[in-house]
């Protein structure tokens, strides 16, 4: 039954005599939009093609090569050679895409149909060398920069947290030093592991050293767990970071945290990096370095929705390791976070 509130139903009504064919190159998405229409090509319509059918792009969106231009591209980086503990985040992008099949086109919390107001497309995966981290970092930076040509904004699904460094390099080249909201159990500002500079525990120290970040506007959110030394926190502060711990979120509450984040980032171009281990292992067991006492997925999603008036320019969601997941708990959380990040990007057009 057509529902006038449903943006999909505002297009031509489905014709049961003429079902879409996902194999049909003229209509690979089962789209109701006429060919050549200037409105964004949305996801496959789950009221016409069952959501479990066909290949998984994020939220069943078109692939980048199926659209003439994308305002927002979702790209996977299946790289996990930078981890210090459990491997497996290389399978994150595939798991998040699979778990995203249930996403629907209208976001009631933010009152927007993100795929109707912006052309969003799935750019596939960046193929990077698992045996050479330096080379992989360069590949990711170059691929991200090429995807951003023409003003396309990027949401990246990792992959381990190493990938934030090349992504920030590509973003800073476009926008200059950016504000950063880093949602993570960990600081990820350590110096080296086994002498290696590019790891999943070090991207944000490198980013500060390289001048990619606006050091007036950096905050970790959700930090908790054991550290290497008492010096870790003052060193992190010296780099410019503020810290809102997981316990602060619980004690101060979501609304106060949102206010504090707005004060910190203001109208600066903003990058959001979300390590799924910011969530409690009960909400995200499928990750490589889990820490007890984390945020709930409800808290994280509410905080993100509170950031709709920032100047978000790009984001990543990293560290989903499906081998440790159960019943897709982690991948579902990550797919919803990615949906919210996408929706935020449609609301926060850079000035
Ligand atoms: N970025 C993530 N997930 N973890 C960093 C933890 C580094 C460590 O082993 O101390
Ligand atoms: Zn982490
Ligand atoms: Zn991290």
UniProtKB/TrEMBL annotation:
Co-factor binding comment: Binds 2 manganese ions per subunit.
Biased composition (Polar residues): 30-40
Region (Disordered): 1-49
Gene Ontology BP, a term: putrescine biosynthetic process from arginine, via agmatine
GO MF annotation: an example: agmatinase activity
PROSITE patterns: ARGINASE_1 (PS01053), ARGINASE_2 (PS51409)
Keywords tagged on the record: Hydrolase, Manganese, Metal-binding
Cofactor: Mn(2+)
Protein name: Agmatinase
């Amino acid at each position: 039954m057509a529902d006038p509130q449903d943006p999909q139903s505002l297009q031509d009504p489905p014709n049961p005599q003429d079902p879409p064919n996902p194999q049909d190159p003229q209509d690979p998405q089962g789209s109701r939009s006429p060919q050549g229409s200037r409105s964004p090509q949305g996801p496959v319509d789950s009221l016409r093609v069952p959501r479990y059918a066909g290949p998984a792009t994020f939220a069943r969106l078109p692939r980048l090569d199926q659209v003439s231009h994308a305002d927002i591209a979702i790209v996977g980086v299946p790289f996990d050679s930078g981890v210090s503990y459990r491997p497996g985040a290389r399978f994150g992008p595939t798991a998040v895409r699979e778990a995203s099949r249930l996403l629907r086109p209208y976001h009631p919390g933010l009152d927007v149909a993100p795929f109707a107001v912006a052309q969003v497309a799935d750019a596939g995966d960046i193929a990077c060398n698992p045996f050479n981290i330096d080379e992989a970092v360069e590949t990711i930076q170059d691929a991200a920069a090429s995807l951003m040509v023409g003003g396309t904004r990027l949401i990246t699904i990792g992959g381990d947290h190493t990938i934030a460094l090349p992504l920030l390099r590509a973003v800073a080249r476009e926008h200059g030093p950016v504000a950063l909201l880093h949602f993570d159990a960990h600081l990820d500002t350590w110096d080296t592991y086994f002498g290696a500079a590019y790891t999943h525990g070090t991207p944000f120290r490198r980013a500060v050293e390289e001048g990619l970040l606006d050091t007036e506007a950096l905050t970790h959110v959700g930090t908790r767990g054991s550290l290497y030394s008492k010096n870790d926190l003052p060193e992190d502060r010296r780099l410019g970071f503020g810290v809102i711990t997981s316990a602060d979120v619980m004690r101060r509450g979501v609304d106060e945290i949102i206010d504090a984040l707005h004060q910190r980032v203001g109208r600066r171009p903003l990058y959001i990096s979300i390590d799924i281990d910011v969530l409690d292992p009960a909400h995200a067991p499928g990750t490589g370095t889990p820490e007890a006492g984390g945020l709930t997925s409800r808290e994280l999603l509410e905080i993100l929705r509170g950031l709709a008036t920032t100047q978000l320019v790009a984001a990543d969601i990293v560290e989903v390791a499906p081998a440790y997941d159960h019943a897709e708990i982690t991948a579902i959380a990550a797919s919803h976070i990615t949906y919210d990040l996408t929706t935020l990007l449609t609301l926060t057009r850079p000035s």
